[in-house]
Specification:
Blueprint: E1 2-9, E2 13-20, E3 23-33, E4 36-40, H1 42-58, E5 74-77, E6 84-87, H2 89-112
Antiparallel strand pairs: 1-2, 2-3, 3-4, 5-6
């Protein structure tokens, strides 16, 4: 039976490892938000974080706009070259938090149970 080991979540989505027969399959991370799921390696997730940051910078012209969180959607590139997502600024901020929070938790676990152990 498959289960999950949650890594991080926010109001928009969650990330987790799949478990199979009580073994965590940590080579890839399942990222789920909206009606979308991605199954990324850590490297692909880091690449996604860079693409998100690029999108935030490209859309920074909206910073002082009072319609910032309610207007048109922007294209967000993903590590899957054939897939771009149409997201609002609010969704982009939520995806950014989800990806950054996931990477933080993964790196914290690696440190605590790796080089940080005495």
């Amino acid at each position: 039976m498959k289960g999950i080991e949650q890594i991080y979540y926010n109001n928009f989505g969650m990330s987790f490892y799949w478990k199979e027969k009580n073994t965590i399959k940590s080579e890839k991370i399942q990222l789920v938000f909206k009606e979308t799921g991605f199954y990324f390696t850590v490297s692909e997730l880091e690449n996604f974080a860079v693409l998100i940051e690029d999108s935030c910078k490209r859309n920074s012209c909206c910073e002082n706009c009072e319609m910032k969180y309610r207007c048109a959607k922007f294209l967000l590139k993903t590590p899957v070259s054939q897939i771009d997502l149409a997201v609002s600024m609010k969704e982009l901020d939520s995806i950014k938090d989800l990806v950054e929070g996931t990477l933080f938790k993964i790196k914290l676990e690696e440190y605590m149970y790796g080089v940080g152990m005495n």
